[in-house]
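Sample intake sheet
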Amino acid sequence: MAQRANLIAAYNSNPTLQSRYTLPQYLAMFGFGDATTPTPDPTPDPTPTPTPDEPGLPNIINQNVGRDNDRQGGGGAFGNLDISDVKTFQKDVYNSKTGQFEQQTVTGYKDPAQGNYKTFDGKNINHAGINFKPAFAGIIEALGFGEKKDKKGFYDGQIAGTFTNFKPGDIKDITGFLKTKKDRQTFMDNNKKAIDAAERERLRKEVEAINAARSRAESARQYDPNIHGATNYGLGSDGQQSFDSGQGFGTNATTGGPVSNRTGRGRTDYDDGGRVYLYHRLK
C-alpha cells in the first residue's frame, strides 16, 4: 500500500507525468492494474524513509538523483536544461507526411549535467541514431505509449542520427557511409548560411525601400515650388527639403552642397548619401 501511495505522490507532484499519462496508466507500469484511484486510508501506513539512489543514476521520473543538483538548469520538460544557453542546429528531421527526412532548424538547450544540447522535450540532437532503448523506455512502448512510428519505423519529428538508415550492407563501405553523412551535414550548414544571407539582403532592400518611401512622403509634404524651385530634389541628409539651383541639380537646405534626387529614391546628397547611405555605413 505504501509503495502505491508513493507512486501516486510522485505522479501528483510531476506535471510532465500528468501531461503524458493518466494516473491508472502510470500505475499500470508498475503492476497496479486497477483503473480506479484508491481512497486514501484513514490511517495510512507511514511513509518509509527512502533509500538514497546510487549516485549518478536517474530515478523513474528522470530526475538525476545525487548528481550535482546545483548543475541542473531548471528548464525543459524535465527541469534539467539551461534554457538561457541556446543553440540552433541544422538536422534531418522526419516528416511523416512525406515519409522523408528533411532539413530543419532544431533549437537545442544546454544540459549542464551532460554537457550536450537537447530539445525542450529532452531528446538528444546529436546522437548515433542506434535503436537502443533503456529498459524503462521499452516498457513504455510495450504499453502502447511513446512516439507512434510509421511503416518505415520512424516517427514524425524524429531527428536523424549518425547511423539512421544504416543497412547491413553498408558495413562493406562504412567509410563511404560516414562520408555521405558528413557531406550531408556540410550541405545543410552551407544551405542555412545561404538562406540567412538571402534573408539579410531581403531585409536590407526592404529597409532601403521604406526609408526612400518615407523620404518621398516627407518631401512631398515640405515641397513648395514657390520656395524650393521648379524641380523637387527631395530631402537632404538633414531631413530638410532641398532647393532647385536652376543648374540641373539641387542644393542642401543646411549646407548648400549639391544634391541630385530627381529619381524619387529619397535622400541622395553627394556629400553624405542620405539615410540609405547611412544604413550601409552602420551595418
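Comment: Confidence is low (pLDDT under 50) at residues 35-42, 56-70, 263-267, 270-283. Residues 72-139+147-165 form one domain.
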